[in-house]
Amino acid sequence: QVQLAESGGGLVQAGGSLRLSCAASGGTVSNYAMGWFRQAPGKEREFVAAISESGGSRFYVASAKGRFTISRVNAKGTVYLQMNSLKPEDTAVYYCAAGSRPVATAITYDYWGQGTQVTVSS
pLDDT tens, 111-120? Predict the structure, then answer.
């Protein structure tokens, strides 16, 4: 059983940056593909980024390309989401997830964190 804990959220002005972290415990994180999702109030949970077990493949939602970077350090059991040039529409609760494939479909992920709030002011 893998436990995931997100951190690094907060309030930032538009154009600013944040780095989210997802620490995994209770399992070998290198065995899992990892994803970041977000959910804004009144909206469905949406895919943001995913990374393969080795880190060799990365995928992004179109709105995140060029602004967000997903990375992982398996030795630390940690996955990161560096977010630059933040916009008010990036405001959401951000969740990390672990699964067997680095895909955009939330249902394929087996383990989820509790989320961290990101608020971008205009």
Answer: 999 999 999 9
- What length is written for the chain? 122
Contact criterion met (CB below 8 Å) for 59 and 50: yes
Measured at the CA of 119, the angle between CA 25 and CA 6, to 5 degrees, comes to 0
- Which two three-digit tokens encode residue 76? 């630390």
DSSP string, the chain: --EEEEE--EEEETT--EEEEEEEESS-GGGSEEEEEEE-TTS--EEEEEE-TTS--EEE-GGGTTTEEEEEEGGGTEEEEEE-S--GGG-EEEEEEEESS--S-GGGEEEE---EEEEEE-
Residue 6 CA to residue 68 CA, distance in Å, equals 16
Chain segment 75-117, per-residue pLDDT in tens: 999 999 999 999 999 999 999 999 999 999 999 999 999 999 9
Q: Which two tokens stand for residue 27?
A: 């399992």
